[in-house]
Amino acid sequence: MDIKIVNGKDGLAKEAANYIVEHLKKRDASVLGLATGSTPVGTYKELIAMHKEGKVSFANVHTFNLDEYVGLKNTDTNSYHYYMKELFFSHIDVPEDQFHLPKGTAEDIEAECHTYEKLIRQTGGIDLQLLGIGTNGHIGFNEPGTSFQSRTHVVTLDESTREANARFFDAIEDVPTHAITMGIESILEAKDILLLVAGKEKGEALSELLYGDVREDIPATALRKHPSVTVIVDTEAYQAAK
Ligand code: F6R
């Protein structure tokens, strides 16, 4: 695992955006796995700025997001479809048919999980997967206890995750109870993984990732089994993890 320690949110955004741009420069085309949440917002901003300066194009990029809430329409401001369009896709040159998120409103949610996996495979698999980490060590919406052999599946969200995400909704009752997420095994199939960690509240989860035992209770520890993981962490989270 390669650890890069940076200063603050701006440092993290710049380092992560540069990493992604360098990744894209080395290839004619790439499949990116993307994340939502507050941590990558600055990275998307930075990528948009670099795109506007002519430093990067996404015309040959396909993207697959990690997860989506069950039951929210794409136009719902809390859906991850909406987040990705607003904060990233509508500002760059990625063609509409090249970005993908699980369909949380699919009639048959189980079938949607299989379709999503199949599409990832047909597109050639994920080259670079961007990840954040939950305070409980989750990655994607894979909560503590999720099997390391899990593929894309439907999950019941932990109360702690619903509480953490309630800040985006009017009330906690509005936070969906279920989501579709890529599984741990699906995530580990990415050729390279880039994990972003910011803020002291992530210290405990980071400490488990760096120094704890690899175990399903802390989903992020699965990353220690992957041969190419880069962690960009701000000083606050790094110090809190010691
Ligand atoms: C989002 C996702 C989640 C978040 C995690 C951290 O697509 O998969 O695992 O990365 O909950 O969220 P923030 O960045 O809001 O602290």
TrEMBL record:
Gene Ontology MF annotations: glucosamine-6-phosphate deaminase activity; identical protein binding
Entry annotation: catalytic residues: D67 (proton acceptor), N136 (for ring-opening step), H138 (proton acceptor), E143 (for ring-opening step)
Keyword Hydrolase tagged: yes
Catalytic activity: alpha-D-glucosamine 6-phosphate + H2O = beta-D-fructose 6-phosphate + NH4(+)
Any single Gene Ontology cellular-component annotation: cytoplasm
Pfam families reported in the protein's UniProt record: Glucosamine_iso (PF01182)
Transmembrane segments: none
PROSITE patterns the record matches: GLC_GALNAC_ISOMERASE
Domain of life: Bacteria
EC number(s) per entry: 3.5.99.6
Keywords: Carbohydrate metabolism, Hydrolase
Residue stretches making up the Glucosamine/galactosamine-6-phosphate isomerase domain: 12-226
Keyword flag Oxidoreductase: no
Protein family per UniProt: Belongs to the glucosamine/galactosamine-6-phosphate isomerase family. NagB subfamily.
Protein name per the record: Glucosamine-6-phosphate deaminase
High-level lineage: Bacteria, Bacillati, Bacillota, Bacilli, Bacillales
